[in-house]
Design a protein that fits this description.
The chain has 11 helices and 15 strands. The radius of gyration is 20 Å and the shape is globular. Strand 8, helix 5 and strand 9 form a beta-alpha-beta unit. The protein folds into 2 domains: 154 residues, Alpha-Beta Complex (Quinone Oxidoreductase, Chain A, domain 1); 138 residues, Rossmann fold, CATH 3.40.50. The protein starts with a strand and ends with a strand. Helix 4 crosses helix 10. Bound molecules: NADP nicotinamide-adenine-dinucleotide phosphate (NAP).
């Protein structure tokens, strides 16, 4: 099969190659998926640079997320799953079979049914960001009738956080850096969208709610002061990204608002919680509550450029089209 892969970490253009490798067979409890679309996330390029070191066993086909249909099942997996349209998640976690290839094999639970109305492109964009958004929102309980702030509401995680929070019955405010992203956050369903670069952003968010149940935080280092100004004893600030230097924790200010913080890293979330998150995202999909961001497409043989586009912070979701 054709696969984009790397054998050592390094710069995308230097280490990612399109190669022919033997098509994998599903082991016990696994399914094989004929992929149509591979979704690219920041974690994929970070792993490929070696910034988040993971052992490579011979080669690594990158990308956790993808969508296609099941064309082979391993021992113990019902044959009724053959032909099922699915979205796969965490395909490359501790395994060489990422989704930048014509086929992948994953444990059967990591191939979640894709409802008839959902495109392969949408399916390929869900895994890492939607599961992360679910964990950030719901690890501390339901949100019906509660208020949620999503910082970076036009990012991939932010987008699904807005949609899942709305679907879960919350009122949602989002922050963005400009009008094009504001439009995306509004389209996702945010009740209030604020440009965090403009003066008065925090005051506007305060007028929207004095009782945020969650602040889903993409940039704790930049936003900690704002979050402290918006948090109260009912607020859980949930940080899921660490792109800047670590913030200094102002302990008295945190005590003053009885701050609760949660940190989320998908790789460390327990399996039952991941499977529950996938099931919830599936239900939201079936309710048409989950939509695509603008899609930026690359062919499989331009995998390196696709990863560079994600690294440069392109607006929307980058995908590979699989031949
Ligand atoms: N912990 C986990 O398991 C996990 C899972 C998924 C992703 N992540 C990490 O989370 C980060 C985002 O991932 P993603 O796929 O959502 O990336 P993305 O699609 O590029 O979105 C990131 C968004 O954050 C916004 N942003 C940056 N600084 C901001 C600030 N101070 N306030 C508000 N928004 C801000 C960016 O827009 P502007 O710069 O225009 O504001 C951008 O829209 C990455 O670092 C990724 O590695 C972690």
């Amino acid at each position: 099969m054709k696969a984009a892969l790397y054998r050592t970490t390094g710069d995308a253009a230097e280490v990612i190659r399109l190669e022919d490798v033997e098509r994998p067979e599903p082991g016990a409890g696994e399914v094989r998926v004929r992929l149509h679309v591979s979704g690219v996330n920041p974690t994929d390029w970070k792993a490929r640079t070696g910034a988040t070191p993971r052992p490579i066993q011979g080669f690594q086909i990158p990308h956790h997320d993808g969508a296609g249909e099941i064309d082979a099942v391993g021992e113990g997996v019902p044959e009724e799953r053959l032909g099922e349209r699915v979205w796969v998640w965490l395909a490359a976690a501790g395994r060489p079979w990422g989704t930048a290839a014509q086929w992948t094999v994953v444990p059967a639970a990591q191939a979640t049914p894709l409802p008839a109305g959902a495109s392969y492109e949408l399916g390929a964009c869900l895994g890492v960001p939607a599961l992360t958004a679910h964990r950030c929102l719901f690890a501390d309980g339901p949100l019906s009738g509660r208020d949620v702030l999503v910082t970076g509401g036009a990012g991939a995680v932010g987008h699904f956080a807005i949609e899942l929070a709305r679907w879960g019955g919350a009122r949602v405010a989002a922050t963005v850096s400009g009008e094009a992203k504001a439009e995306l956050a509004r389209r996702a369903g945010a009740d209030l969208v604020v440009n965090y670069r403009e003066p008065g952003a925090q005051a506007e968010l305060r007028r929207f709610s004095s009782r945020f149940a969650r602040i889903v935080e993409v940039n704790l280092a930049a936003n900690l002061q704002m979050d402290l100004g918006l948090a109260g004893p009912d607020t859980v600030v949930v940080a899921y990204a660490a792109d800047l230097e670590d913030p200094v924790l102002p302990v008295r200010a945190c005590m003053s608002v009885n701050l609760v913080m949660r940190f989320v890293l998908l790789y460390g979330v327990a399996r039952p919680a991941l499977e529950e998150a996938a099931a919830v995202v599936h239900r939201a999909l079936a309710d048409n509550a989950v939509t695509e961001l603008p899609i930026v497409r690359f062919p499989l043989d331009r995998c390196a450029e696709a990863q560079e586009a994600v690294r440069s912070g392109v607006t929307g979701k980058v995908v590979l089209e699989i031949p």
